[in-house]
Each structure stands twice: as C-alpha cells, then as structure tokens.
C-alpha cells in the first residue's frame, strides 16, 4: 500500500484514471491492440486499487488509529482507578 509515496492518494487516483482513459483512446485510434489492451488491464487494476485505498483503506486506518488511542486512554483510566482503590 505504500508504493507511491511521492504523490497523494487522491492524485494517484486521478493519474491512473487519466492513464486508463488515454489507453482506451489509444485502442480506439491505433491498431496496436495487444499493447493497449495490456496497458488498459494494468491501468484498470491501478485505478481500482487507488479507488479502494482512497475510499476504504485510508479511512479504516484512521479509524483503527483512533480506536487504539481510545483503548490506550481507557486502559490508563482503568489502571489509575485500580491504583486509587489500593
């Protein structure tokens, strides 16, 4: 998931979608079907991967990070209450 760190996930999504559109346009305008089909398959995979990462994986990572923070806070409060009881 950390392959392309130089540009943001949103920019990756748009880049891969533009590349897919250019591949499809190239298939329509040229006779080089095999390279264009392979390119379209690869850019389709990259576009879907970027979309899934943007819509699902990154928000899920943020939510997990927030839940871990809340869990650590609850553990600290629990330890503090046990220490106060002693």
Automatic annotation (TrEMBL):
Keyword entries, A-Z: Coiled coil, Membrane, Transmembrane, Transmembrane helix
List each coiled-coil range. Answer: 57-84
| Residue ranges of the TM segments | 12-30, 36-58
Quote the protein name from its UniProt record.
NADH dehydrogenase
UniProt source species: Photobacterium lutimaris
State the organism's lineage: Bacteria, Pseudomonadati, Pseudomonadota, Gammaproteobacteria, Vibrionales
């Amino acid at each position: 998931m950390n392959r392309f760190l130089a540009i943001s996930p949103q920019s990756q999504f748009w880049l891969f979608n533009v590349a897919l559109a250019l591949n499809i346009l190239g298939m329509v305008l040229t006779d080089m079907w095999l390279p264009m089909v392979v390119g379209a398959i690869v850019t389709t995979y990259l576009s879907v991967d970027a979309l899934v990462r943007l819509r699902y994986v990154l928000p899920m990572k943020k939510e997990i990070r927030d839940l871990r923070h809340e869990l650590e806070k609850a553990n600290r409060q629990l330890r503090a209450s046990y220490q106060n009881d002693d």
